[in-house]
Specification:
Blueprint (H helix, E strand, L loop, with lengths): L4 E5 L2 E4 L2 E2 L9 H21 L8 H15 L2 H26 L18 H6 L2 H16 L1 E2 L2 H19 L33 H28 E2 L3
Parallel strand pairs: 4-5
Antiparallel strand pairs: 1-2, 2-3
Helix pairs in contact: 1-2, 2-3, 2-5, 3-5, 3-6, 3-7, 6-7
Length: 232
């Protein structure tokens, strides 16, 4: 009796006269394991020190979704994270560099130089620096899903509304001062007090629109041009 499996053609086997294409992993296992190991340290550390609301920050949300996206090799999850945080994280890097040289810019990274925070926690926060590079590398591997802008816009809108209605505003909070305030800057860029130059409800709407026009849309257009790929 003849076997139905014939010698391989190239690298794919031929079974029953038809070439069977074997799906190969696009993202190395070592990268997935390393990312998961880092997350296994960061998540409990942040929960203990900052509480669960800290994961509403766009960057923290994107970190978790990126790790899930790596295991699933989901172009959509990875793409939406890239569209959402690439520009803000580049600003984080610039601000960190300027602060490191002894100057002040946007004060996005002032907490990184706060001696009241442990070096361990500040070291974990360095993921803001390497996450954009990781996302770009992942896009090379899996391509950019054009649905990313819509997906991230929906996620960001929900996050902004939750931060505004259910988390602590800017200003002093003597009880549990370590818990995060003014998440995603829904009360302005001064954590000491909410912005006062316009109606707060209007500010939140304009802030979300500004993020979309200045951060999300430009990143989407550039990434689609460079890494664009039709979603599978």
């Amino acid at each position: 009796m003849k076997s139905e499996v014939s010698p391989t053609v190239g690298s794919d086997p031929v079974i029953g006269g038809r070439t069977v294409v074997i799906q190969r992993h696009k993202i190395p296992l070592a990268v997935k394991v390393a990312g998961s190991a880092f997350l296994a340290v960061l998540v409990p550390s942040y929960l203990i020190n900052y509480g669960p609301t800290n994961f509403l920050w766009f960057c923290d949300t994107a970190l978790i979704l990126t790790m899930i996206g790596m295991w699933l090799e989901s172009s959509l999850l990875i793409s939406m994270c890239a569209a959402g945080i690439l520009i803000p994280q580049c600003l984080w890097l610039v601000d960190f560099g300027i602060h490191f040289l002894g100057f002040h810019f946007l004060n996005l990274t002032s907490y990184m130089f706060d001696s009241r925070l442990s070096l361990f926690l500040r070291g974990l926060s360095l993921f803001h620096g390497w996450l954009p590079l990781l996302l770009l590398w992942l896009l090379v591997r899996v391509g950019y899903d054009r649905r990313a802008l819509l997906a991230w816009t929906g996620l960001a809108t929900g996050s902004i509304l939750i931060c505004y209605f259910f988390t602590r505003p800017a200003g002093p909070h003597p009880i549990d001062p370590s818990l995060p305030i003014n998440l995603n800057y829904v009360y302005g860029f001064n954590d000491q007090r909410p912005q006062t130059w316009m109606n707060q409800n209007l500010y939140v709407i304009l802030w979300l629109g500004t993020l979309w026009l200045v951060a999300f849309l430009p990143a989407h257009l550039v990434l689609r041009k460079i890494f664009g790929r039709t979603a599978n």
